[in-house]
Amino acid sequence: MKTGLSDIGSPVFFIYNGFMSTHSVSIQSARLSQIGVNRQVLKEGSSVLVRVIGERGGGKYEGSVAGVRVQLSASKPLHAGDSFVATVGIKNGAVIVTPKEMPGISQIFLSFNEVSQNQLYSLLESLGLPADNLSSSILQSFKQMGLKMDSRLAYKIRNLALRFSGKEKSAAEILSLLSQKEIEADEQEIKDLLMLLSGNTEDRNETQSNQNTKEKLINKINSTEGSWYLLPFELIQIPYNDDSGFENKTFLGNGCIRLLFNSECTLKLLNLDCNYNNHKYLFSLSYEGKKIKNTYFNVSSLSYSDTLKSPEDEITRFKKLCMASGVNAGNISWADKEALEGNASGLETFITFGGEV
Question: What is the pLDDT of residue 97?
Fold first, then answer.
């Protein structure tokens, strides 16, 4: 997995996907990304430039690591303008840069803390976006797909998403992936796709012509190389020995499988939403290599009369099912329904970035 850094405002914001990679760290200034500068990937063992910007007193200094500002402390006096080359390392989930030739400094440990809601809203305001949940969702979608933090594009997507009352977040996710794949779509196509992905059971008997129209945009998405691929499905049952084709089918449920690939065409996320037996099942599986690293899930009732088990009971039940099936689902966690719906971009977090020598 890759990570990235954004240095708009104070503190510095670290854009972080899931768990820290043991192989590489990717950093990118949001200001640079807005003018199209690609992120810099720092692999374990690679070199990085550390520069002292100024002194803060008490052995504390303001510095930069690969162009990203951090707070440093040192056991020997440093001066503004001092610079040295260090080696990147990752140990126990922490990023470490070790100076190659700087007596008195051994290692610089870079620490990460999840930002508060107020800090996130400060970041949104610095990007010129209204500080609300929709803007946060757009930023999460950008981060999830590895898009540069383009405030003008984010503002455009926000304004378009507001046209889809009640489905603003889902529309923002669709608009973000269309932008990433450089696909043009009109408002009706997006409405049709949102209806298709919602699994509206009232439309099962519509004409084939109408169904083909709804699938028009999703076919564009899946035939264009890029991040997300969307695979809607239906669960049906056909009577045994019935040779009438699908005429006597029984509808059992529906949903969508969403696949997210990274720039190396490696599967990063597999999301599943399914409506079945009066329940809604949501899963988000993150991958590291070919193995599942984390599984987040949620089960909710589609019937007011149904009583669900507690999240702890659902986790226990799911773990037993995985063990019985011989499936290694990685770290299994319960997540809020709102975080897992759609592309599950609600799971994306923003991290503050600091350092200590």
Answer: 67
Place of tokens 């043009």: 184
> What is the distance between the alpha carbons of residues 150 and 142, in angstroms, rounded to a whole number?
9
Side chain identity at residue 167, one-letter code: K
What is the CA angle 135-258-131, rounded to 5? 5
Distance CA 258, CA 273 (A): 9
> Beta partners for 292?
287
148-193 residue pLDDT tens = 878 899 999 999 999 999 999 999 999 999 999 999 999 999 999 9
Q: What is the pTM of this model?
A: 0.70
| Percent of all residues in the chain with a pLDDT value above 70, rounded to a whole number | 70
CA-nearest of 301, 252, 283, 300 to 347 is 283
Q: What is the DSSP string of 286-353?
A: EEETTEEEEEEEEEEESSTT--PPPHHHHHHHHHHHHHHHT----EEEE--HHHHSTT-GGG-EEEEE
In the 8-state DSSP scheme, what is residue 132?
Answer: S
Q: Which two tokens stand for residue 235?
A: 């669960």
